[in-house]
Amino acid sequence: MPRVRARAGRRCGRLAAAAALCVSVLSGCNQTKWGDYDFDTGPATNSDELFSLDRLPRFDLRLDASSWAALEAEPKQWVPGSFEYDGVVYDNIGIRLKGNHSFRSLDEKAAFKIKFNEYIPGNRFLGLEGLTLNNMVVDPSMLREWISYRVFRELGVPAPRVGYAQVFVNDQEYGLYLNIEPYDDEFLARVYDDPSGNLYESENSTDLDQDVENWDQDEGADKSRDDLRAFSELAVEDGAAVFYGDQALVDMPRFLAFLAGEAIVGHFDGHMGGHNFFIYHEPSQDLWTYLPWGLDQALVRHVSPFAHGGYLGYKCVHEPACLVDYVEASQQALTELAAIDMSEEVRRAIALTDAAMRSDPRRPHSLASVESGREDSLAYINNRAAELGPQLDCLVDGEQPDADDDGYGPCFQDCDESDPAINPDAEELCDGVDNDCTGYPDDVPACECPSLESGGRTFYLCWNSITWLQARDFCEDQGHVLARFDSAAQMAEVWAAAAEISGGRWSIGLNDRDVEAEYRWLDGSTPSFSAWASGEPSHQLDWFDCVFLSGGAWFERNCIEKGSFVCSDPG
């Protein structure tokens, strides 16, 4: 059972972030005013209060030497520790680290999962089995996840409640964290009429067209995976039976809202990209719903509403009936998005967390980066309806027109409705025409990119925009390599030619993917010169491993970032 630990002065100073910028104190210890906002300094008495913008709780985690060493050796295995909130200590709880590209060790700003019933069956904190504490190291705004989950919930998508917290570990301040409601039994009981079903996670690009054993099963007593197997088998059949009719297995209103939500927040790292999502089977309905996850890279890319790469999303937008339903659901979602006063809610979130953000000793982002990130995240979501609205205005009398009868219309941005040979699935013919409507003519490896000679080597300037990893493969498919430069003068000559085509960033073959901070060309050789831009390389952010050329200088970025690219002859 939890035990109470007396801490003089802790209760009245509970809202640490707001207290540092306090303008006036109202009603004794119960309320703090920050600018135009009132915040409650008392402890949360239920989970709704915990996951709100009314208070900033302080969580104290404690790990003894053996648990600390165990997490250093196996960071994603549960170890025993304690959790304290408002002087109440929960002993013998489970603690582990979390994250993939956001993973940090205990010596850095680690992200945590807390499980109150890991060692004590039935143990709960404010009715919760656990907590997820995200470190927000990928998100300089510290707002992306909060905004994105807020959008999903507004659309009626099963999504977690989200708040913020200050986290201390062994009495050391670890900083400001996002406090996310986990997907677990308590979540399922709160959201679904029937919470007895199975919950599966796609973490490593697992989808319905792959072996069902590749999914992680997070909840559910039935371990046979028969339900998932039946869902997968119907999903991969030709036609729309998985969506409509007597056999249908998809909760369509929630699924369409989920797809619309991913497009609105630009969640390229989620189901849109074929991973980072959950699915739940509600037995009494025999229907499946999709749940979002991993939103720290949302609100950045301006993705097309039809760019769904996840298996079922792709199938939906390529089935005529489902496409129409999706477009109409997306239009409705934009209306619902407009009902949120996002500027006001973001201002409140900033007011609540600003002092804690500034005092965060492990925050990897500068104050200037956080402030500009806040502006960018808010501008993204506030402008999204105006951006997506015209793209979704593609139906006539409830159907997608198709003037050239090629099966593609304006919803898929058929770039030439007068020519049935030109559509998003057409073959690129290397004829100077954008046959497949990507926005770039001749953008497949079979088509040679413009070239130039410099320093005895040939370089190929491919101006279509793809990720660094895709550019590497594209060059290899052409019999080339992602470019290596032998001298600064050679690189400057190539950059001058590239800049005439596009002044943006260009992928080159330099990277430190094998050993952090050891930059090598793809052939394993080290560069004979340096051309880093000011403040580069960014190797302290260890998911930044690939180098782009921009303005004649090197910039280190995530390997899934997009740009034009330079290939060169091997050797």
From TrEMBL:
SUPFAM superfamilies recorded: C-type lectin-like
Keywords: Capsid protein, Virion
InterPro entries linked to this entry: C-type_lectin-like (IPR001304), C-type_lectin-like/link_sf (IPR016186), CTDL_fold (IPR016187), Put_metal-bd (IPR021655), Spore_coat_CotH_CotH2/3/7 (IPR014867)
PANTHER family: INNER SPORE COAT PROTEIN H
Pfam family, one: Lectin_C
Region (Disordered): 200-222
Protein name: Inner spore coat protein H
Residues covered by the C-type lectin domain: 454-568
Ranges of Acidic residues composition bias in the record: 204-219
